[in-house]
Amino acid sequence: MDFLTTVLLLLVGVGGGAALANALRSRSGVTNVRHESTLLLERIEKVFKVVMAEGYFSEIYNYQDQKKILYLLNDPKKAMVIAKSKVLVGFDFSKVRIRPSENGEKKLIIEAFPKPEVLSIDTDYKFYDIQAGILNHFSGADYTQILDEAKRAMNERALQSDLPKIANNQIQYMMYQLASSMGWQLQLPEAEQRQLDVLKAQADNTTNYKQLTTGE
């Protein structure tokens, strides 16, 4: 038996063995799936962020991209994404500027207070009605762009809702109560102070009404 014949027999044997193994694997229903993941920790930062409001949103996002074939024919691709999100709104206290009163009073003067911001968005995405074009196909970059745009839309919707106002009212009244419990006065910037005075008046009216109705 010459060398060429030996090589051909070996190749046939290897091919037949692989075919037999695949047939047995498919018949037994056993698949060999491997999952690998790598976790990289880039950095750790100390933060002082407080969540004061939580909201749940649903968003339907329609994506469409037009592409010309030979500058004549439209080759569109489109997809519909349904996103359900939990949005947390609160404050970054590292941006607060606060000082005690200079005349010896037990008063905390807040010179600057940050606006409420979206601290996190936890979103579940589902794709529906994905239609690729003839040559205009979806790529991984397209899906990333769709998810980024849907998340930005959810962020804008949350900021346009009542969540920032609720968070602002919550933090102002909480700080007022905390300072009062320790015998301190709280002085906010002018606009925030007016808002706090309104909240205190509403709280006092609610307390007085409860006392009148319960006879306490």
TrEMBL record:
It comes from the Bacteria. This is DUF4230 domain-containing protein. Pfam families: DUF4230. It comes from Spirosoma liriopis. InterPro entries: DUF4230 (IPR025324).
